[in-house]
């Protein structure tokens, strides 16, 4: 599966990320929020076209699991043919729970109830993270559109055992961690 966070309406970034879905043979797309709008604190990104982003994502609706970001609204949901308004979503993978969230409500500093071996997958900060802390996986794929902290645009990939953050331009692994 691939993890895409903080598209912020940029069709070019989405196309680049979706190309890696095919190259990596990923069956599912995990959207971690801030899908269509850039938000009032961010600059309008190059390639800003929220309607085109919705149209492109709708082609993959049957493989998307999405959560709502702080820039997402009910109006965005009207354009998208997949549910995207949940604040969080749970996945069970190899008998362990993954909490998918944007990161503005639940975060490493404000975690939902997680057992040892579970994971928290989030976006929002636009900063890549792949770590185990207190026996819990913390994973943030960074941002495909507005990277921060001197990082390049990035997305996440999970091959069934290893979580990796990869450069959007090349697919090269930036950081990675095995999930127990």
From TrEMBL:
Its EC number is 3.1.4.-. The keyword S-adenosyl-L-methionine does not apply. Keywords: Hydrolase, Metal-binding. InterPro entries: Calcineurin-like_PHP_lpxH, Metallo-depent_PP-like, MPP_YfcE, Phosphodiesterase_MJ0936/Vps29. It is an enzyme of class 3 (hydrolase). Its cofactor is a divalent metal cation. GO terms for molecular function: hydrolase activity. The keyword Hydrolase applies. Residues 2-159 form the Calcineurin-like phosphoesterase domain. NCBIfam families: PRK09453.1 (NF006988), yfcE (TIGR00040). PANTHER family: VACUOLAR SORTING PROTEIN VPS29 (PTHR11124). Belongs to the metallophosphoesterase superfamily. YfcE family. This is Phosphoesterase. It comes from Neiella holothuriorum. The lineage of its organism: Bacteria, Pseudomonadati, Pseudomonadota, Gammaproteobacteria, Alteromonadales. The gene is yfcE.
